[in-house]
Please model this.
Amino acid sequence: MQVIDWQVVVKKYGPIVWNTAYRLLGNRADTADCFQETFVCALEVSRRQHVRHFPALLIRLATARAIDRLRKRMREPNISADTAVCTTIPGDNPEPYQQIQTQELVVGLREALCQLPPQEAQVFCLRYLNNMSYRRIAKELGIKNSTAGVLLHRARTKLRELLVKAAVIEERQV
Amino acid sequence: MDKPKDILDKAIDALANTDVPPGPPPALTEATVSKLAETARSSQQETRTIKITKIIRRMSGPIKIAAAVLIFIATGYAIGRLSASKAPNIEQLQAALEPAIRQNLLQEMKQYWQVSLTDSYAQLKDELQQQYRRDLSDFAIQTLTASSAVTNDRLQELIDAINAAQNQDRQWFTSALSQIEHNRLQDKTQFAAGLETLALQTEDQLQRTKQDMVQLLSYTQPSSLNPKELRNPSNTN
Model:
């Protein structure tokens, strides 16, 4: 059985998990919950199998948990996926208009990610938000490289459609 | 020329470059570590249960049957033993129960006394504490009053002493000034008298010198006068 010093693991890879979760969720409370869930899940995984690459496993788990939370947030009637906007730290962008546009895009992408099948959303996030290679994604998700490519392509297509649709609706409302 | 980015690429860029606050907070890290430890403990217990279940599952058919029969027999024996009715022997029962009852009673009494003693001890302690505080505060008030009275007396004495010293100094200073003035007047009088005397003497001397000068000018040399006498004028009358 693999002996793991979880205190060291949490301290070493905590920031990676935090960044991954926060980028998708956008607020501290959800990110903190996701952070804990990710490590508990990693503990369970480490009981079942030997973990060779902790960062990749933690990123995958954090992404999956964060997407689940996003979906849950979308399902709840009073809370939308853009709750995060209130707590987002303003960046160095000097133009308020650009900042609003960027925020809208982020919120739109988060909402669109909630509408994708879980595996597609996960592949998309691992590739574009965590810069993982196809090979690593395939290895982490237990699928073939080609399958990862297909899932990513589908995810991109669907997300683009959803974003365009959302943009059109917004323009009509304006 | 660069191809304009489509909406998806823009959104990906925006999401990937979202500002993330530094984290995780230390409290969250600690909470996570403790939660992991707790989960590990509970899952160890689950693992033990699963192991026993697995052992049972691994047993082959005849062994399973034998174990079941054994458990069945043991259960039957236990039920029979427990449900068997016997005529109760009162004395034996009393002898058997008495020490236990006595011990229980003793224990209960002991507990009761312990509880009541603890309560009374706590009450007594509180009362003593309150009394001690009261006494201490009274003593403090008295001490403060007395010390302030003594301090006031001492201050008054000091003020009186300072005033007396100042008066004495003033008197000394006045007498010294009057003495100096007296000396000055005396010196002035003496000086004036001296000056007057000097002036009178000077005037007399001047008169005398004047007369001498007149006599000298009116003096005629006699013809019979010896030249030797001329050389020695002190011999003249």
